[in-house]
Amino acid sequence: MLERISSPSRSRKLDRGDRALMWLLTAVYTIFTLVNLGTLRFPQNQWRGEPGASVTIDLGEEKEVAAFRYNGGIGLGEMMITADDGSVFDFSQVYGDMFSWRVSRLGFTTRYLLLECVSGEVVFNEIAFADPEGTVLKASVVGEEGTALLDEQDTLPKKPSYFNGMYFDEIYHARTAYEFLHTMSVYEWTHPPLGKELIALGVAVFGMKPFGWRVVPALFGAAMLPVLFILGKRLFRRRDCAFLASALFALDTMHFAQTRIATVDVFVVFFILLMYLFMTDYLYLDAEKAPLSKAFLPLGACGIAFGLGTASKWTGLYAGAGLAVLFFANLFGDIARSGKGEESRRAWGRAWKTIAFCCVFFLLIPAAIYFLSYIPFYRYEAAADPGTPMTFRRMLDILVRQQESMYSYHSALTATHSSQSAWYEWPFGAMSVWFYCSSNESTVSNISTFVNPAVCWVCAVGTLCAVTELLFGKMKKDPDYRKTALTILLVAIAANYLPWTLVTRCTFQYHYFPTMPFVILCGVLLLQHLEESGEVSARVKWIWLAFSAVYFLLLLPACSGITVPKVFARFIEHFLPAGNLYHGVI
Q1: pLDDT score of 549 more than 60
Q2: Residue 141 is part of a domain; what is its CATH number?
Q3: Which among 454, 458, 456 has a CA at the least distance from the CA of 551?
Q4: How many other CB atoms are there within 10 angstroms of residue 419's CB atom?
Q5: Which residues contact 194 (CB under 8 A, 6 or more apart)?
Q6: For the segment 419-451, what is each residue's pLDDT rounded down to a tens digit?
Q7: In a domain, 252, yes or no
Q8: What is the domain range of residue 146?
Q9: Contact (Cβ atoms closer than 8 angstroms) between residue 558 and residue 576
Q10: Is 175:187 a contact under the CB 8 Å cutoff?
């Protein structure tokens, strides 16, 4: 088996064995990441109550009501729940209640319950009442109004959890996806819209359900693996090393956690990987032999990926700066190597044509992609003010206003957070970002995003060693393609990582996510150098991969929401070096 993976081929192109291995890894990971992603049993019908609206609930006979369970929609308001004896419970629907199951304690003995909205707007997807033992009481609506409150009782979970509701920043990004689909006023505008529009695709297909708003990010996370495999094959020219890099990425706990939550980070990382894959294809072309049309194909694809990445999150611009460095260094290097006379004139002519092409594909087309990504905003403004034509100038004004608001928000942000960390801590994961936790006396369910030390700590050290090897000339005898590969990776790491050293606002471990795949590739590249120079055995990479897999499985409960005994969680927290994962809960 290992002999098949360790193909002797040194071609940049994928062969049949490469594709089989790549798609097998992707298929296994896709199945694994979709398991327990989120429920498909989730209430879809809503009741909206404005001041004065009321609904009477009949329990059939007088019963003791201990709890009020509810799944809220997007609404802010006040409601009174009144029992037969006049006892009142004041309910406030607040931000963060939406699309999750919550519980409020009651203390009524009654047959009828009157629900009356007194201010704002109260929105419910479903409600239920329970007795002191937790048994859901059979109930019906008196009259025809408010039937949506009790029409999907089969969706009530035994216990509220991440599996059946929103957690962390899903209350922003998944909510915005819903608002886009329903032409509503958008609450979250602090990142460009494309990522939330991609989340909306899953909602459109599966409904506003946890699986629906998480499935597209999860699939994009799985799609990173073949992209990384292909990039690895281009850089390493070895199947085993390409497989090792993509498998290590699959085994990283931050990759797993970040791609199973409905936020926009997964999309920008995917498009950044595509950018550098296509730029790599361009850089490996023979400038003297390859026709311009062949060079324009990967450059054009790179520009489109750059536009899509920037329309997902502004950090795509950081990656774009690295592309510019690689592009111009390669371009002027070709000119310098062309010599003088006719060859120099041809090189300059080719360069100007290439620059003109890039002005279209790295400036105009990304600008068009970015402009079009704001279509949901234009639709909402048109619906809110149908009397004013939606002209290009009006759309441009909306776009500019959104950019000003976005910049003002990020530049003026001074808030702090218990999970924040500085850029120099990220490669070794000193502080995880706590997404979700639910615990009792004996068990705990937790989701944190953090790096797998067996993968990223090793690769971070490997990257530093690779830089040292390069600076001290220990890679002089390496083939030129590997020197080019190291240059590409170091530029990618610098472009995605170094800008964060200048950011003074609150930052988090997941801001390292775009840098991480390139650090992994750099670590594997160093291992390839050591192996081919005879300094380490070929078995080392498989031992490393096996150790990373074991470590991933041990850490899985801390990043997946799997419920485990607290004694095991304490083992993870206190005996496995991985950072602060449970934030004091255990």
Answers
A1: yes
A2: 2.60.120.260
A3: 454
A4: 18
A5: 264, 267, 308, 311, 312, 369, 373
A6: 899 999 999 988 899 999 999 999 999 999 999
A7: yes
A8: 47-156
A9: no
A10: yes
Cβ-contact 198, 220 below 8 angstroms? yes
Give pLDDT tens digits for 318-359: 999 999 999 999 998 888 887 777 788 888 888 899 999 999
Phi-psi region of 36 (alpha: psi -120 to 50; beta: other; left: phi over 0): left
* pLDDT confidence of residue 345: 84
Element (H, E) at 365: helix 365-373
Q: CA–CA separation, 209 vs 214, rounded Å?
A: 9
- Among the three residues 141, 156, 171, which one is the final residue of a domain in this structure? 156
CA distance 569 to 565: 7
Structure tokens given for 511? 């801001």
Rounded CA-CA distance 286/547 in Å is: 40
Nearest-Å Rg of the Cα atoms of the chain is 27
**pLDDT confidence of residue 439:** 92
Question: What's the structural domain count of the chain?
Answer: 2
Q: Which of 128, 156, 184 lies at the terminal end of a domain, its last residue?
A: 156
DSSP per residue over 509-521, as a string? GGGGTTTHHHHHH
Q: Are residue 75 and residue 116 in the same domain, yes or no?
A: yes
Percent of the chain past pLDDT 70, that is, above it, reads 98
Amino acid identity, position 361: F
6 close to 239: Cβ distance less than 8 angstroms: yes
Same domain, 423 and 285: yes
Nearest to 218 by CA among 177, 261, 165: 261
Are both 215 and 327 inside the same structural domain? yes
The one-letter code for the residue type at 231 is L
Instruction: Please name the amino acid found at residue 340.
Output: K
3-state secondary structure of 560: helix
Do 142 and 205 lie in one domain? The reply is no
Tokens of 490: 């170091």
Residues 6 or more apart whose Cβ sits within 8 Å of residue 377? 186, 193, 398, 399, 402
The two most distant CA atoms of the chain are separated, in Å, by: 100
Residues 206 and 107 in one domain: no
Q: Is residue 379 part of a domain?
A: no
Burial track 342-351 (b if 16+ CB lie within 10 A, e otherwise)? eeeeebeebb
Same-domain pairing of 139 and 272? no
Show the CA angle centred on residue 410, arms to residues 409 and 411, nearest 5°: 95
**3-state DSSP percent of the chain in helix, strand and coil, to 5:** 55, 15, 30
Please indicate, yes or no, whether residues 442 and 508 belong to a single structural domain of this protein: yes
* Closest to 197 (Cα-Cα) out of 313, 98, 319: 313
**Residue 142 and residue 97 in contact, taking contact as beta carbons nearer than 8 Å:** no
In this structure, the answer to whether residues 276 and 297 fall within a common structural domain is yes
Residues in a beta bridge with 104: 68
The answer to the question of residue 166 being in a domain is no
Gap between the Cα atoms of 583 and 586, Å rounded:
8
Residue 385 lies in a domain: no
